[in-house]
Design goal:
With 216 residues, the chain is of the alpha+beta class. Helix content is 54%, strand content 7%. It is built from 10 helices and 4 strands. The structure holds glutathione.
Length: 216
């Protein structure tokens, strides 16, 4: 059995989600960094690992490669069930996946590095315009997310009840990205409260971008 390997990048929010999951489950891993701004994820070496050329990618102990952060998190949850990152009941699992996907499918893909780069190279957007784009798409989903979280009796200390779940991993990682683009968090008191509760858990702090070996 080899060690678990995580191909990732300190600033990548999708990587941050997975690092929190690994830390919560106490799983040690080899940290392999790919500098996204230097295009290292597009080099032959990494494309041989993950032909999609995106981070994160997990190499499990038997050599299996798994890309896509939510697939990785659910895999880890099955391989190392404690503490669970998905609720035991189908309704709860669906709600946690819904909250996770609001961020992972409706915010992240349109704000990814390659999208912001394309806005610049294809359409001449400057830094202010691409930051405005980023904030627009965060707010577009954070507004309904705040409403869902504040109205639902299933929201607890965390997004779903009083234990952190996959939804909290996505939320915290997204907020770390938001800070780089000066997203105003004042309209989101429930989201902010949940984020603060998460940051009291050592795994969330340990996995944070500024604590990674490739942090700048
Ligand atoms: N849906 C994928 C997205 C992976 C992804 O796009 N990762 C970003 C970093 S957060 C990336 O590799 N970006 C490189 C680029 O845009 O060129 C996941 O959840 O893992």
């Amino acid at each position: 059995m080899s060690e678990i390997i995580l191909h990732n990048y300190f600033r990548s929010s999708t990587s941050y989600r997975v690092r929190i999951a690994l830390a919560m489950k106490g799983l040690k891993y080899d940290y392999v960094a790919h500098h996204l701004r230097h295009g290292e994820h597009r080099g032959e070496g990494y494309l041989a690992v993950n032909p999609q050329g995106l981070v994160p990618a997990l190499i499990w102990t038997d050599g299996t490669m798994i890309a896509q952060s939510l697939a990785i998190i659910e895999f880890l949850d099955e391989m190392a069930p404690q503490p669970p990152l998905l609720p035991a009941d189908p309704h709860g699992r669906a709600r946690v996946r819904m909250l996770s996907q609001m961020i992972a499918c409706d915010i992240h893909p349109v704000n990814n590095l390659r999208i912001l780069s394309a806005l610049r190279s294809r359409y001449g957007a400057d830094d202010a315009e691409s930051a405005d784009w980023f904030r627009h798409w965060v707010n577009e989903t954070f507004q309904p997310l705040e409403k869902i979280l504040s109205l639902s009796p299933q929201t607890g200390k965390f997004c779903h009840g009083d234990q952190p779940t996959m939804a909290d991993l996505c939320l915290v990682a997204q907020i770390a990205n938001n800070a780089r683009f000066n997203v105003d968090m004042a309209p989101y008191p429930v989201i902010s409260r949940i984020r603060n509760a998460c940051m009291e858990i050592p795994a969330f702090v340990e996995a944070a971008p500024q604590h990674q070996p490739d942090a700048e």
